[in-house]
Amino acid sequence: MSVMRYLEHIPTPVGIIDEAGKVIFLNPAFVRLFGFAREELPTLTAWATLAYPDPAYREECSAICRNDLANMLQSADKVSPIRHFIITTKKGFHRNIDLQFCLEGNEILAMFQDRTEEVRKHRELEESLAKYRILFDNMSTAFAIHEMVYDEQGQAVDYRYLEINPAYTVMTGLYSQQLIGKTIRELFPETEFHRIQEFAKVVKTGEILHFESDSGDLGKQFHVVAFPAGTNRFAVLFHDISAIIQAQRKSVAKSEELQQFVHAVSHDLKGPLVTISGFAGSLAEDLQNNDQEAMQADVHFIQNAAKKMSSMLDELLLLSRAGRLGKPPVNQTLGSLVNGIAELLAGRMPKGEDFIEVLQPNAIIHGDPERMQQLFLNLLDNALKYQSTEQQPHIAVGCQKINDELTFFVRDNGLGIDPKNIKRIFGVFEKVNAKSEGSGLGLTLAKRIIEAHQGSIWAESLGLGKGTTFFFTLPGSHAANESKAP
C-alpha cells in the first residue's frame, strides 16, 4: 500500500504542502472535519484566510506556523512542536485543534487532532469545580472530605482529613492548618473504633450514613451525614441542631408545665367552688327554716369564696398576659426602677427604715417597662413577705457576671427556703408557707416575664433562716460601664 493510499484511509485529518506553500493533498478525514475540498484550498495562504477569519488571530497563528516550518528546515529535527489552534470550519463552527508538522523530503505533512470534545468536557469540569468550590466555601453546613486508612490486613483503622470548608471551622473552632493531612486518631485519640468502622462501610458499600452526635467539648449537638466521595474516600456533612434539640426540650418542659398548671388551677379553684356549693345547700335549708342569722352566715361564706375565686381568675388573667410583651423594650437604670417599686411598697416596710439597697444603681435593665415593674414588684414583695423577725431586714438588689453573662439578683436575709422546695416555688399557686398571704402566683408571674424576654430565672437558698437570692438574666441589659452590643 502506497503512503497516499494509507493516508486516505486513516481517521486522522492530514494535509500535504510543498515548500512553496501549495496544498497538494487533503485526505477524506480532513474534508469531513473542516468541510473544505482541496480545490477550495489551493495554498497555505488560502487555508489561513478561511480557517482563521479574524485577521489578528490569523496573523498570530500564521507567525507561529512560519516559525515552526523555518526551524524544521534549518535543523535536524524534522517534527514541529504540537500547537493548539481554534480553527473555523466551512460551516462556521469552531474546532479546538492540535496541529503538528512533519518534514518528509521536500514536502510538509500537516497532522490535525480534533480536541473540541475534550476541551468542552474539560471546560465543563472546570466550571463544575468552580461552582462546587463556591458552594463548598459558602455553604452554611460544615463539610469535610476524608480518606480511609487501612492496616496491612486491609482493616480500616483510621481516617485522614483531606479538606474542610469554612463552615467546619465556624462550627468546631478547628482550622484547616490543624487538621489537613492528620488522622482522626492523631487529633482525637479517644475516637470510638465503631465510628471508624461505620465510615469504612460507607466507603465499601456506598451506603449513606445518618446519625446525631453530641459534642461534649463544644457543647453542641450535630446531625451528621456521611457518603462516599471517591476511591477510599468519604465526605461528611453536618449542621448544628443544638437549637432544635433545645427547642424540643423546651416544648416538652412547656407541655409538662401546662399539665401542672391545669392540675394546680383545677385543684385551687375547686376549693372555693366546694365552699359555694356547700353553703348554697345550707342556705336552702336555712331559707326553709327562716333562720335569718344562719342565712347571713351562709351568704357571708359564699361571698368570700366568690371573691377568692374572682381574685384567682384575675391573677390567672394577669399570668396569661405576663407571657407576652405589651410594649417595646426600653432601657432603665436599676436604681430608678427599684426606687419606684420601693415607693409602692412603702406601706409594707417598717416606718423610718430603708432596708432596700441597690448595689449597682446605674446598671441598665432592658425590657418592657410595665413587665419590668411587675417583675421587681413581685420579687421585692416576696422578699418583704418572708422577712425574719430575728434580725434587721435587708434586701440587696444588684448585678454580677456569672459565666460571662450579666445576671441580676434580689437577695434577702429572710426566712429562707428548704433546698428541696426550691424547684417548685415557681409553680402555679405554689406557696412554701401555706399560711402566708397571697395566692402563690407572684413568682410564677416573675418567671413568665423573664421567659418572655428570653431570659432565665432561678433561686438559691442555704436553707431555712438563711435568706434567699433570686437570680435572673435579661438579654440586652448591661452594666453601667458597658455598652449594649449592636
Q: Can you tell me about this structure?
A:
The protein has about 475 residues and is of the alpha+beta class. The chain folds into 4 domains: about 5-120, 2-Layer Sandwich (Beta-Lactamase); about 140-240, PAS domain (Beta-Lactamase), CATH 3.30.450; about 245-320, Signal transduction histidine kinase, dimerisation/phosphotransfer (DHp) domain (Helix Hairpins); about 330-470, Heat Shock Protein 90. It contains 14 helices and 17 strands. The chain has helices at about 5-10, 30-35, 45-50, 55-75, 115-140, 165-170, 175-180, 185, 195-205, 240-290, 290-320, 335-345, 370-385, 440-450, and strands at about 15-20, 25, 85-90, 95-105, 105-115, 140-150, 155-165, 210-215, 220-230, 235-240, 330-335, 355-360, 365, 395-400, 405-410, 455-460, 470. The strands form 4 sheets. The protein has a 5-stranded antiparallel β-sheet with strand order 2-1-5-4-3, with helices on both faces. Strands 7-6-10-9-8 form a 5-stranded antiparallel β-sheet. A 5-stranded mixed β-sheet has the order 12-14-15-17-16. Helix 12 packs across helix 13 and helix 13 runs antiparallel to helix 14. It is rod-shaped and about 140 Å long. The model has no long low-confidence stretch (mean pLDDT about 85).
The main sheet orders its strands as: 2-1-5-4-3
By helix and strand content, what is the structural category? alpha+beta
Q: Could you name the ranges where pLDDT drops below 50 across 5 or more consecutive residues?
A: none
Q: Roughly what is the average pLDDT, rounded to an integer?
A: 83
Could you say what the CATH topology of the largest domain is called? Answer: Heat Shock Protein 90
What level of helicity do the residues show? 40-55%
CATH architect. name of the largest domain: 2-Layer Sandwich
Beta percentage is 15-25%
* Overall CATH class of the largest domain: Alpha Beta
- Count of the separate structural domains: 4
- Largest beta-sheet characterization: 5 strands, antiparallel
